[in-house]
Amino acid sequence: MAEGDHETAARLLGAAAALLAGTGAADAPAGTPTAATLRERLGEAAFTSAYAQGADLPRQRALALLDGR
To answer: How far apart are CA 33 and CA 55, in angstroms?
Structure first.
């Protein structure tokens, strides 16, 4: 992932939230300082869209995105 790729970062946060769901871990990626910065850079609508796209990714696709594929 290229530095400054805010949309991909928002997708990865959404994917992280989905992977954490049901594990008992706090699923608060949307409430982190990173998420706040991404909201500021992308705007609320674009952040929400990218986050939702990430949350809908299958596990293997989310991992591939993290690897930059």
So the answer is: 19
Q: How far is CA 28 from CA 1, 64, 69, in A?
A: 22, 22, 25
Total residues found in the chain within this entry = 69
Task: Tell me the pLDDT tens digit for each residue of 52-65.
Answer: 999 999 989 988 88
Mean pLDDT check: name the lowest of 4-8, 9-13, 18-22.
18-22
User: Which parts of the chain fold into alpha helices (H)?
Assistant: 6-20, 33-42, 44-55, 59-66
- The distance from CA 51 to its chain's CA centroid, rounded to whole angstroms, is 5
Q: What is the DSSP letter of 21?
A: T
Q: Give the CA count within 13 Å in the CB-facing half-sphere of 49.
A: 7
